[in-house]
Design a protein that fits this description.
Number of helices of chain A: 11
Number of strands of chain A: 10
CATH architecture of chain A: Alpha-Beta Barrel
Oligomer: homodimer
CATH superfamily of chain A: Aldolase class I
Structural class of chain A: alpha/beta
Largest sheet of chain A: 8 strands, parallel
Radius of gyration of chain A: 18 Å
Number of domains of chain A: 1
Helix content of chain A: 40-55%
Amino acid sequence: MNKIYTGVFPIAPTPFRDDGTIDGESQKRVLDCMIDQGVDGICILANYSEQFLLSDEERTELLDLCMDHVSSRVPIIATCSHFSTGIAAARAKEAAERGAAMIMMMPPYHGALLKAGPQGIMEHFTAVAEAVDVPIMVQDAPLSGVDLSIDLMVRMAMEISGVSYFKIETPQTADKLRALITAGGKAIAGPFDGEESITLMADLNAGATGTMPSALLPDRIKPVLAHHAAGDSTAAETQYTTILPLINFENRQCGLRACKAVMMEGGVITSEHVRHPLPPLPPETRAQLLELARPLDLVAMRWGR
Amino acid sequence: MNKIYTGVFPIAPTPFRDDGTIDGESQKRVLDCMIDQGVDGICILANYSEQFLLSDEERTELLDLCMDHVSSRVPIIATCSHFSTGIAAARAKEAAERGAAMIMMMPPYHGALLKAGPQGIMEHFTAVAEAVDVPIMVQDAPLSGVDLSIDLMVRMAMEISGVSYFKIETPQTADKLRALITAGGKAIAGPFDGEESITLMADLNAGATGTMPSALLPDRIKPVLAHHAAGDSTAAETQYTTILPLINFENRQCGLRACKAVMMEGGVITSEHVRHPLPPLPPETRAQLLELARPLDLVAMRWGR
């Protein structure tokens, strides 16, 4: 529990074949390609892994495959979100037993309307924390439809042993991170951002110690954090400005399909299929994405060639 | 495919033990208690069955148990909603193969933000319809966060073979049902309402031919439809006025916990546990519910005594 995780923890996409079945061999190459870029860790079964399009059985299959293949080369963060507290705790336990270094989860929600109140959220995270002995990262994500206040997050960090990482993806991330760090102090072991690192510079300036982007360009995001940590914010800003057009296009135009398209070009995966009802990337959008990516000489775009 | 289903199709609650595990024996009694009330059919694995708090394995266990136990005594509607089109189709196929008379589903959604557009919804329902040869009921429910327009629902009914039942639960149900029936004509085999039958009188007057309440008081809802079908709208209105205070209290104060509390009182189930993060019914609310229910001499409140 005592190691503090910092740095770039990108999300591994889940590769499917053209028929929609899981492509295990491509999944292994995705993980190797990410590790070869010097990532500080990998997040699996996240929203950008299309977790909401997987059956329970497929979740377990992917957990086993990823844990076996990574085999402790880098720490793995596994998600366990489910509206049922009991099922979320069982998922967390399974992941921790398989060797996950951290559990990530959203507060409980279902659909547009069902969510727990502050007490229910506290109980939900407490039950999950009691099921594992690894740290837990709270995902403050708009997808859940749940507003997590600074007060509640600080209470979670102070009162629930294990809850110590926070990934903030709501509007005005930097302000929220700053307020969280100020109010939570040492209880906030890891203030992270996410959402493709689209808010990274502001968040680093606010005190973020880690970021969870997609697996599109971790090789190019890593130097931003390195320069910033070394106190050279000008170099960090310069590097970030170089990659921001691609990140912006990913974030606003492509979503999780961007990483798959680039990894397909790079021979990492054999199909960029996303599961219906997610639509495939339109050809024009895909072409513009690759045009923005090409000058950056991304590892993911040449790794398997 | 040719039988037209009409009448009262209540949702079977999923009984848990106090420890949160599924109580199969209580589930059987729930089904028997409902059948003894002369229901026209039963819906399983619905939102009021806490479907969003079940694992995939538990879904299958419940499907098997309910199909075996009901054993064709009444038609069963089984839900199959999942954001993944492939998983929804597989669930529908499994239910139809086990003997479900109808499949019910919401348009694809996940969380507060993810939903398909009209084309994606068409494709989603088409894929499910192609996987089964039983009719499909479209659930127009606020929980999904998806707006289903009259135009889209009529297109679904006209263009997708099997899509022929519509359960409307959005605001102003009666207007929407009337518009749907007018625009869809014969393609709308079953215009239903739901939501505890809280809008039943207006919906019957608009042309609804079926209702999907909870399993709290189907014995008292059935006469409303019978009187209305016989052309005696005064008797229907009188009967409905008698039960409306209880339905109103269920709908606005209790949700799915009302049926469980009454069935607990009636010895139908051995625990009224709902899965966390749903909170148990506060004692004051439970007492008021039973006070409203008692004078109605509900079957569910005495069946197992």
